[in-house]
Amino acid sequence: xxxxxxxxxxxxxxxxxxxxxxxxxxxxxxxxxxxxxxxxxxxxxxxxxxxxxxxxxxxxxxxxxxxxxxxxxxxxxxxxxxxxxxxxxxxxxxxxxxxxxxxxxxxxxxxxxxxxxxxxxxxxxxxxxxxxxxxxxxxxxxxxxxxxxxxxxxxxxxxxxxxxxxxxxxxxxxxxxxxxxxxxxxxxxxxxxxxxxxxxxxxxxxxxxxxxxxxxxxxxxxxxxxxxxxxxxxxxxxxxxxxxxxxxxxxxxxxxx
Length: 257
Description:
The protein is mainly β. It has strands at 5-8, 14-23, 29-34, 39-47, 54-58, 67-75, 83-87, 89-100, 105-109, 116-128, 135-137, 145-147, 150-152, 159-162, 175-177, 180-182, 190-196, 204-205, 208-214, 221-228, 230-231, 234-238, 253-256.
């Protein structure tokens, strides 16, 4: 398919199947969703190319209400700055048992002028072996939650959130429960998990990282975990496999509360 799929309006469309495969050969986005409340995308495999912009794009023209993505894999969108998943303006989406792997970026959040993303729940989602970020949030979302997700082998950071770029919301409440992180920053210097609040006065509040298992980083990793401009963070990480996580060398944690 060269033209992709586009859904807009209030008709609550649904894309479901048992073994649906979308081989996208165009240069844009394989699946675009705008202003479609209640949409369900289930049991879908999307494959891209080195020239396509991205796999699934949600809420980049108008705000997009609640929806569900379940048992979906998106891969091989490898153009510079491409993505498996992009969310611009959306609320109350649940993304379950899905994978955004072997793209340029696995998932990017808020990469447009609308900049309003609230309560996206990622449940058992894999962000592996992407050629830049596994997960990247450039606005600072409100209340996004990650349950038992995996970030592994991404060339840059596995999880990257920089609230200082956004203008529309006061970011707070990022939560990571369980999950696994290993071998990120394979070739791009940085941190496996990076969260920076909007500023020293508008800080990221109520962050929780609990039960995450963190193992050795990639060859270009500078920190496992880096936090800046955050207040009230609860950090409970299983780092038993790391012998020198608190040292001042390469395997350390940077905390700038």
